[in-house]
């Protein structure tokens, strides 16, 4: 397979997807929507594991909750600091939302408590075993 160079910009609020590729794998078209994009990304080795990792799932959930609360990252950090009475910086919120694997369970706990987590439902792939 030839080398594929993919530059991707996703605009979460508008849902707009922009791509710029120097080459596409034979038979692969430019993704037109989220489902096409996910199919493309999942075909790249290692991407599926990253997209569906715990840190990515938690980051997406916290990001969506922050938007629902109409808070900027800095405002959320201040709120977490106020609720937990422990320091929290905007850069930590950014790393969480970016899916950083270096976030501790204690940090997730503090943020989730501050944004009002009531319950956490885990879904498992029935084909996992």
Sheet with most strands: 2 strands, antiparallel
Taken in chain order, the helices and strands follow as EEHHHHHH
Q: Please estimate the helix content.
A: 40-55%
* CATH topology type of the largest domain: 434 Repressor (Amino-terminal Domain)
State the CATH architecture of the largest domain. Orthogonal Bundle
Q: Over the alpha carbons, how many angstroms does the gyration radius reach?
A: 18 Å
Strand content: 5-15%
Using DSSP, what is the number of strands? Answer: 2
Number of individual domains? 2
Helix segment count? 6
Mean pLDDT: 80
Distance between the termini: 31 Å
CATH superfamily of the largest domain: lambda repressor-like DNA-binding domains
Strand order in the largest sheet: 1-2
CATH class of the largest domain: Mainly Alpha
Keyword list:
HTH cro/C1-type domain-containing protein; mainly alpha; Lambda_DNA-bd_dom_sf; DNA binding; 6 helices; 129 residues; Cro/C1-type_HTH; 2 domains; two-stranded antiparallel sheet
